[in-house]
Amino acid sequence: MRYRFVVLAILMACSSHNSSTANSDGAGGGSGGSGGAACTSDTTCAEPTPYCDTQIDQCVECLSNTNCGANRTCNTTTHACVQCGSDSQCGGQTPYCSPAGECVQCVANGNCMGSDVCDQTSFMCVPSCGSDADCKGVRAVCDTTTMECVECLTGSDCKTALAKVCNTTNDTCVECEMDSDCPTMRPKCTMNDVCVECITGSDCGSAGSACTDGICH
Question: According to the model, what pLDDT value does residue 28 have?
Answer without folding.
Answer: 35
